[in-house]
């Protein structure tokens, strides 16, 4: 009801607005209208023609409701609407009046009291039978008729008069006249030339109005009212239809109660009585609205929603009870189908043909199929498994290609053979020309690196444990560790001055003063008469039962050589100073069995590798600097980068650890490329190369570029695996040494050969 | 496929030229057919076998197979160069040595000379008899050469270079009745083992190279007195020397070099003469240097990258040089051009090539022989750098070849297994000979 009311008020407002508009538009007539309105306010009496007057009282759609207040409102509205209607009627009247002045289509009747009957009667004015009375007698300036006017375009006349004379075209003013007309006549801009009548005709007010309406985009018909009041015909008091529209007898259901409804209602009643339905639910607190955050709680399940169960395939022609012939199976096909397993069959049924649907027997596999379908729905997992789809090539780190990192050793140039015994150690002279190799048979051979021809051979008693050339360039000798002695040997074919210097160093004519603390190591030199290149010029005898010398390591200056003995845990490390002819044990007590020692190339530091740890000592300050933990069970080999900042450690458990000494005590990189224990590691002194040898007989050559920039990590690129050594007694390549000036590698192997690998 | 033919144009530098015209040749033909064709076309009295080079490669298959491998269509005209084919080398004789042979000389008309790592110089005559066996150095001799001298037939002057830091000029006579050797002078300059010695064509000057990076220039005149004083002996040596004073009365004169050519960094592996005034040397510092010997100036340096050179020969009167290096290549350098374009061609070996020799010294022959550490001697033609023309294995097993020499159709191969002589006919023996005679 409220909505209806709102509509009404809105429509009323619209009317008001329209009225206001009209007022502004026709201000001249508005004044009259106002007076009219006032007149209307007084009464409706002087409306003579009685059109558009609402005789009916207004009927509201809600009139059947019996609320009093509503009716009061209605009454108000009715009044208002009446007023509006009257306004409109006034408008209409006004227009009609103006129209009447122009057109007299029908003569106006007059109502007079008949003298005869005494009843009022209409009297029309007499029709005068002259020219005016008929359209045919109208003064028609057009003498042509209803023909297209362009027929006369070329003619000087237009039509003919009653006498058959040509009617000449009326004279037209020239352009100047037209212009003057526009100046003189204010209506000239609303006049147009009428060809039919051959004269200028001003547009009528009505036509102008139409033009204006069209221009304003309104309906051109001035009569048209889009908001005509609703006319109630059958609603409202006194307008109800009393008589039925149809004569058909009323159905029984109109007045007999429905049994079914009664039953239904009785059921509810009974339920209420028995208390099954509580008539008025107790008002719970749910009435009061509760607010909650819909995002506060976690989603119910982390898993994505399960996949929908697969849909069954729609039946095809083959499933039909009456399939086309090509779907039927021949006997051979059936036999073939029988042979297959149930899972492999193309279909799980045999198409069969029946002439009619009623002949189709019951589906024999119904239970089975339903069961399997339920089983499938119930048991089959529907979780989508995300496959890891990684391109394996993307996991390989991007390294420069080995061919761009030349030179590195890539082929075996020659092989030097020791006839018996495995070769444990090899060493290349600092000028890169000579190599010495020692085998288990006690033989030390001197040979040219490039030719491989043995120049000299020394025979010692016992296994050769270690061999090293003295790194000094102005001297030429090497040390050999055999059992518990260390021999100093001068090779042949040495320049006289070098030979003299070497001899004077190793066997000075006046011995340096013995130091205060007697050492357990004896330095012995044979008498000058017994000197020859066959015999060592100097021998150091370590303490008895100190074990075999397993490693000799020179300080870079060539004055100190450190030896490691395998035997006793105490005093296994000795540092021998050549110029002072004095040996000292740097460690009184050391934890664990020492495997290897190394001098730092630039600083007075000393690396000591025990079975599992590498300790770095400062010899000058006599303190422990660092303990490196390679995580190797048994360290087998170790070498320090020529820069002194990096260390590689290899173990019998195949691991190779690269330590950046600036970084941490854990390895920067662990390489595990060998299939057997690592035996030897070696950095090239000048080229960015290092190599590792293993018991699997192979040698692996790596490119190891170390940057001065502390932020850049060392670049380690595997370059080449050199194969060629045989594995004998489970031992492969035992020691590696680089040629100092060339990227050449010498490898001593347990098969009794020393190979030289060239680039 | 018999019907398909290939148009072919033959070119040659041999004395058997064919008229330049196109031949339509069945593509199934191989070397043998082509050789027969050339022989027939030339109408040679004595058949000469030819080898055929197509685009620097020796034709070993049929023409159609070669075309299929190299993607040459049948419409194209092939330019085939033919060379006299090297007959399969034949072993003439072998001379086992007690030590490794470090250098071989087949220059002498009737004898073969070898030096070995045991310090001995050995001479063999044509009937394989050892004629001379003399100890010249106590250390391994690395290289030797003859010093041409106007002397009688069977006496020669020999210069040897040894690892005992000296070179030596000795006179040997290999007469049938009495063979003798006499050291004339020792050359003292180097502080490291010597690697090579070579004499100029007149026999007036010597070049020695050593591991200490020096090249020494010496004349071959024997001075009346020592030019270099005896080293100052300390007491022990003096004592010893006194004992054997009588033995050292006839000891050779000690000579000093005329000039020292210093420019190499590192070991010099070979120094040789280009002509009377110029020398060439190569070393482990990957350079080939030419020297103005008189003034002791390095005139040109060709620097390669990471190619320690092992041996060198010069050809075409010193206009180019062939060098072998440890990176398993033999490289032809043009000694006249600038550095960048110096390397003309490269020949790959499967093993370290250790030595190299030309059929005649200073010729423009395009054939070379190289020996390598895998014991195989290869004969190359410079026009075909893909593969060797002929190979032979000097000894059984992998015994290193350390020296080769090729004179008068005989290749002497020295190395781990001693001396081996092989008959290898050099290209255009007749042609070269005729040129020489003209």
From TrEMBL, chain A:
Superkingdom per UniProt: Eukaryota
- Establish whether keyword Membrane is in the entry: no
The alphabetized UniProt keywords are:
Nucleus, Repeat, Ribosome biogenesis, rRNA processing, WD repeat
Gene Ontology molecular-function annotations: ribonucleoprotein complex binding
Task: Establish whether keyword Cell membrane is in the entry.
Answer: no
Q: Which GO terms describe its biological process?
A: maturation of 5.8S rRNA from tricistronic rRNA transcript (SSU-rRNA, 5.8S rRNA, LSU-rRNA); maturation of LSU-rRNA from tricistronic rRNA transcript (SSU-rRNA, 5.8S rRNA, LSU-rRNA)
According to the UniProt record, one GO cellular component term is: preribosome, large subunit precursor
UniProt lists compositionally biased (Basic residues) regions at 1-13
Task: Please list the residue ranges annotated as the BOP1 N-terminal domain.
Answer: 152-409
Q: Which Gene3D superfamilies match?
A: YVTN repeat-like/Quinoprotein amine dehydrogenase
- Places the protein is found: Nucleus, Nucleolus; Nucleus, Nucleoplasm
InterPro entries recorded: BOP1/Erb1, BOP1_N_dom, WD40/YVTN_repeat-like_dom_sf, WD40_repeat_CS, WD40_repeat_dom_sf, WD40_rpt
Q: Where is the composition biased (Acidic residues)?
A: 34-99, 127-137
What are the start and end residues of every segment in region (Disordered)? 1-147, 296-334
The WD repeats are found at 416-457, 671-712, 736-759
Complex and partners: Component of the NOP7 complex, composed of ERB1, NOP7 and YTM1. Within the NOP7 complex ERB1 appears to interact directly with NOP7 and YTM1. The NOP7 complex also associates with the 66S pre-ribosome.
Any idea what job this protein has?
Component of the NOP7 complex, which is required for maturation of the 25S and 5.8S ribosomal RNAs and formation of the 60S ribosome.
Concerning HAMAP family, the annotation shows:
BOP1
According to its UniProt record, which protein family does this protein belong to? Belongs to the WD repeat BOP1/ERB1 family.
Protein name in the entry? Ribosome biogenesis protein ERB1
TrEMBL record, chain B:
Q: Which SMART domains match?
A: WD40
On the tree of life, the source organism's domain of life is: Eukaryota
Q: What is its main location?
A: nucleus
Q: Which InterPro entries match?
A: NLE (IPR012972), WD40/YVTN_repeat-like_dom_sf (IPR015943), WD40_PAC1 (IPR020472), WD40_repeat_CS (IPR019775), WD40_repeat_dom_sf (IPR036322), WD40_rpt (IPR001680)
Q: Which Gene3D superfamilies does the UniProt record give?
A: YVTN repeat-like/Quinoprotein amine dehydrogenase
Where can this protein be found? Nucleus, Nucleolus
State the residue spans of region: Disordered. Answer: 220-256
- GO cellular-component term (any): nucleolus
Q: What is the lineage of its organism?
A: Eukaryota, Fungi, Dikarya, Basidiomycota, Agaricomycotina
The protein in question is named Ribosome biogenesis protein YTM1
Report the PANTHER family cross-referenced here: RIBOSOME BIOGENESIS PROTEIN WDR12, WD40 REPEAT PROTEIN 12, 37
Swiss-Prot/TrEMBL keywords: Nucleus, Repeat, WD repeat
Q: Where is the composition biased (Basic and acidic residues)?
A: 233-249
- Ranges where the NLE domain occurs: 8-66
The WD repeats are found at: 187-219, 261-301, 368-390
């Amino acid at each position: 009801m409220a909505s209806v009311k709102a509509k009404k008020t809105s429509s009323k407002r619209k009317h008001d607005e329209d009225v206001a508009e009209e007022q502004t538009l026709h201000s001249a007539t508005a004044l009259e209208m106002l007076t009219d309105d006032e007149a209307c306010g007084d009464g409706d009496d002087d409306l003579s023609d009685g059109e558009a007057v609402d005789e009916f009282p207004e009927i509201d759609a809600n009139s059947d409701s019996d609320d009093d207040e509503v009716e009061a409102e209605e009454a108000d509205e009715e009044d208002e609407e009446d007023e509006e209607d009257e306004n409109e009627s006034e408008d209409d009247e006004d227009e009609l009046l103006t129209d009447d002045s122009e057109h007299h289509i029908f003569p106006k009747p007059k109502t007079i009291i008949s003298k005869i009957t005494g009843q009022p009667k209409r009297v029309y004015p007499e029709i005068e039978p002259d020219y005016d009375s008929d359209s045919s007698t109208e003064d028609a300036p057009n003498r042509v008729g209803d023909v297209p006017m362009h027929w006369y375009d070329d003619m000087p006349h237009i039509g003919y008069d009653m006498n058959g004379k040509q009617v000449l075209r009326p004279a037209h003013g020239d352009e100047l006249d037209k212009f003057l007309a526009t100046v003189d006549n204010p209506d000239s801009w609303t006049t147009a030339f009428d060809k039919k009548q051959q004269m200028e005709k001003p547009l009528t007010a009505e036509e102008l109005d139409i033009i204006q309406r069209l221009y304003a985009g309104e309906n051109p018909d001035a009569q048209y009212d889009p908001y005509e009041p609703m006319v109630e015909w059958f609603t409202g008091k006194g307008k109800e239809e009393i008589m039925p529209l149809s004569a058909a007898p009323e159905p029984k259901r109109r007045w007999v109660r429905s049994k079914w409804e009664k039953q239904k209602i009785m059921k509810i009643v009974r339920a209420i009585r028995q208390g099954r339905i509580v008539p008025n639910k107790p008002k719970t607190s749910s009435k009061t609205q509760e607010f909650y955050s819909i995002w506060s709680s976690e989603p119910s399940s982390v898993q994505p929603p399960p996949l929908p169960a697969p849909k069954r395939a729609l039946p095809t022609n083959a499933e039909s009870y009456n399939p086309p012939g090509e779907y039927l199976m021949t006997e051979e096909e059936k036999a073939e189908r029988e042979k297959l397993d149930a899972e492999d069959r193309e279909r799980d049924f045999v198409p069969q043909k029946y002439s009619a649907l009623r002949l189709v027997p019951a589906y024999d596999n119904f239970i089975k199929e339903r069961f399997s379908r339920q089983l499938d729905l119930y048991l089959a997992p529907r979780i989508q498994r995300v496959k890891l789809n990684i391109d394996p090539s993307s996991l390989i780190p991007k390294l420069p290609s080995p061919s761009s990192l030349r030179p590195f050793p890539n082929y075996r140039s020659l092989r030097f053979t020791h006839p018996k015994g495995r070769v444990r150690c090899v060493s290349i002279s600092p000028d890169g020309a000579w190599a010495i190799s020692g085998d288990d048979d006690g033989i030390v051979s001197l040979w040219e690196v490039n030719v491989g021809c043995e120049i000299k051979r020394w025979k010692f008693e016992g296994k050769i444990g270690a061999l090293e050339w003295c790194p000094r360039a102005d001297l030429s000798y090497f040390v050999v560790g055999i059992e518990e002695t260390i021999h100093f040997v001068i090779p042949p074919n040495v320049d006289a001055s070098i030979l003299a210097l070497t001899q004077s160093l190793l066997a000075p004519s006046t011995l340096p003063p013995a130091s205060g603390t007697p050492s357990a190591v004896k330095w012995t030199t044979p008498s000058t008469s017994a000197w020859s290149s066959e015999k060592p010029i100097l021998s150091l005898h370590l303490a008895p039962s100190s074990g075999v010398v397993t490693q000799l390591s020179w300080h870079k200056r060539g004055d100190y050589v450190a030896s490691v003995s395998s035997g006793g845990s105490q005093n296994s490390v000795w540092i021998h100073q050549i110029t002072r002819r004095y040996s000292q044990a740097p460690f009184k007590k050391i934890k664990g069995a020492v495997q290897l020692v190394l001098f730092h190339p630039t600083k007075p530091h000393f690396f000591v590798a025990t079975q599992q740890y590498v300790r770095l000592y400062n010899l000058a300050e006599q303190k422990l600097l660092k303990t490196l933990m390679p995580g190797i069970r048994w360290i087998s080999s170790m070498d320090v980068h020529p820069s002194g900042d990096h260390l590689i450690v290899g173990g019998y458990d195949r691991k190779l650890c690269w330590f950046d000494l600036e970084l941490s005590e854990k390895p920067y990189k662990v390489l595990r490329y060998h299939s057997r224990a690592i035996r030897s590691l070696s950095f090239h002194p000048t080229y960015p190369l290092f190599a590792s040898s293993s018991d699997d007989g192979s040698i692996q050559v790596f490119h190891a570029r170390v940057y001065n920039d502390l932020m850049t990590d060392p670049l380690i690129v595997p370059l080449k695996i050199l194969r060629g050594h045989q594995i004998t007694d489970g031992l492969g390549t035992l020691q590696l040494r680089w040629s100092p000036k060339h990227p050449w590698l010498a490898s001593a192997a347990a098969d009794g050969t020393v190979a030289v690998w060239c680039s | 496929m018999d019907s398909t033919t290939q148009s072919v144009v033959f070119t040659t530098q041999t004395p058997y030229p064919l008229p330049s015209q196109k031949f339509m040749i069945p593509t199934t033909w191989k070397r043998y057919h082509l050789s027969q064709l050339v022989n027939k076309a030339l109408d040679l009295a004595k058949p000469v076998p030819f080898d055929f080079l197509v685009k620097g490669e020796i034709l070993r298959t049929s023409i159609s197979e070669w075309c299929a491998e190299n993607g040459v269509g049948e419409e194209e005209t092939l330019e085939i160069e033919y060379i006299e084919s090297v007959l399969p080398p034949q072993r003439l004789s072998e001379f086992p040595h007690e030590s490794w042979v470090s250098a071989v000389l087949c220059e002498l008309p009737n004898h073969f000379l070898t030096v070995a790592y045991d310090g001995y110089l050995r001479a063999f005559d044509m009937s394989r008899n050892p004629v001379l066996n003399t100890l010249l150095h106590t250390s391994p001799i690395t290289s030797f050469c003859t010093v041409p001298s106007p002397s009688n037939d069977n006496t020669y002057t020999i210069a040897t270079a040894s690892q005992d830091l000296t070179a030596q000029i000795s006179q040997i006579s290999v007469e049938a009745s009495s063979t003798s050797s006499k050291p004339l002078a020792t050359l003292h300059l180097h502080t490291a083992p010597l690697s090579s010695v070579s004499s100029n064509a007149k026999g007036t000057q010597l070049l020695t190279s050593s591991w200490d990076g020096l090249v020494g220039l010496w004349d071959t005149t024997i001075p009346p007195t020592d030019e270099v004083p005896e080293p100052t002996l300390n007491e022990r040596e003096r004592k010893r020397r006194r004992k054997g004073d009588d033995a050292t009365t006839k000891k050779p004169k000690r000579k000093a070099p005329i000039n020292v050519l210093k420019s190499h960094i590192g070991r010099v592996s070979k120094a040789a003469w280009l002509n009377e005034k110029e020398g060439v040397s190569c070393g482990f510092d990957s350079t080939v240097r030419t020297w103005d010997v008189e003034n002791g100036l390095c005139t040109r340096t060709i620097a390669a990258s990471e190619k320690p050179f092992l041996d060198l020969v010069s050809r075409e009167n010193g206009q180019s040089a062939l060098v072998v290096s440890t990176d398993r290549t033999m490289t032809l350098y043009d000694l006249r051009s600038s550095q960048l374009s110096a390397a003309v061609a490269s020949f790959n070996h499967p093993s370290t090539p250790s030595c190299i020799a030309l059929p005649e010294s200073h010729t423009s022959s395009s054939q070379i022989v190289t020996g390598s550490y895998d014991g195989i001697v290869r004969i190359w033609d410079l026009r075909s750098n893909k593969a060797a023309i002929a190979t032979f294995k000097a000894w059984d097993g992998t015994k290193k070849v350390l020296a080769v020499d090729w004179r008068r159709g005989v290749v002497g191969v020295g190395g781990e297994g001693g001396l081996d002589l092989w008959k290898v006919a050099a290209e255009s023996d007749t042609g070269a000979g005729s040129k020489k005679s003209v």
